[in-house]
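Practice record 12: protein with acetamide.
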Amino acid sequence: MPRPVRVVAGGDGFPLGPATALDAAPGLTEVAAVLRGALGPATGCDFPPGPGGIRLRIAPELPAEGYQLDIRPSGVNIRGGSAAGAFYAVQTLRQLLPPATLRRARLPGGPWTLPGIRIEDAPRFGWRGVMLDVARHFMPVSDVLRLLDLIAFHKLNVLHLHLTDDQGWRLDVPGRPRLTSIGAWRPATMLGSRQHERYDERPHGGFYSDDDLREIVAYAAQRHITVVPEVDMPGHMQAAIAAYPELGNGFAGPVRSSWGISPHVLNLGPEALQFCRDVLDHLCDLFPSELIGIGGDECPSVEWRDSPVAQARIRDEGLAGPHRLQSWFTARLAEHLAGRGRRVFGWDEILAGGAPPGAVIAAWRGAGPAAHAARAGHAVVSCPDTSVYLDYRQSDDPGEPTPVGTCLTLADVYAFDPVPPGLTPAEAGLVLGGQANLWTEHMESARQVDYQAFPRLCGFAETVWGPPGRDFDAFAARLPAHLTRLDALGVNYRPMTGPRPWDARPDAPGNPRTIEDRLAELREMTADLDQASA
Ligand code: ACM
């Protein structure tokens, strides 16, 4: 899982044993190390270098992320279009063995035999993403690395790391010590959705050192995952403004403890702009990704109406009003990133007033904005909340933890198609792929992230890997075997029978919505885009 494009099973397989050799072509030593690390501990095989066992080769005629895997009694032959393709063949190999081989230590059992099979496989999309929000709840590095392993196991290849928000700032920036001494900590945390007005009394926080982030990037790269960092600007900035009030419009208060959208945004004066450039420079130093996330979602312009700094900017730049300030700002960030050979990655709100050329759009407000972005000539990553927001509840069972958003069952996620209807072939070609988003307001630990992510992320992986026209019943029939793999990997997935009694969060009540209500809200939220394209 995700289901390979072409599988021909049959014939005798290949027995693994302590003498099974591994013959990796020069450019595949890292993939060989991954194979040894993944299969060695549980099988007891060291895979010494040499011929006659598993053979890893690059076949440039294959799609870059594609591979062929041929298992027969004489050996295992892996050909990858690139190291990424060979890496995905190794992930498939892991799934062809019994789940016990996925564990981190040896159990009684074996010897293990790989089944006779021939697989030809390649992904439909180049962007198979997961967004993790480490701002609402900080996640220790070890948990992020574990999530990277699980992402890679499902052949996903982008981690969009949402590093800052109103409720916490999670990275060090040179010369700005208060971002982490003040901005990384909040005094309390809201429990459940806003309207219940419940809080715990525990401070929450944490941040990543430069070396933490370098480790995440390097660990991801070994697994052929690109980490796309995001610092959300100019809204969702209350944590930074709590640390440096001069960046705001008069707000002097703590990091936000409640959910929802803070009205306290950057003032966009010279100092705030320099701050953003410094932050982006630091992201460029730490993250090799060509795309750098600038956020841009949900920025209220209310404060700008009465802010002398914002008004001076509006006057100096001859802007039509506060509603034009954000697109002016986004253009400046795009210029700055271009100077470093990078490009803007932003939420679909940056389409309002025109996004900078070359900006890649994360289209989230329902299914509409992906089409708007493509029609405006932007490359786009589809992540509509109505299909792939994994913080939304998985069923209408009253035992679901903190039920928010619309009901997104496994079947709903499986029905997702990154390419919205009605696009020309050229516009459809601008859809880079899809992304499942893990907003963590209501997930305070990796255990809860597991619950929300799995098994829906398994279904999502098929929507971005396999050809269109998938069959949910066939997927559901393959899923129980896959869940035994997740068991071996120690994943706290949602059982198919529904939440367990201790998954419920009566202390953190939610706010379940109907799809009809949400669609009406989205129509209103994206009316400006509709008007612009009309
Ligand atoms: C978002 O969900 N605010 C991008």
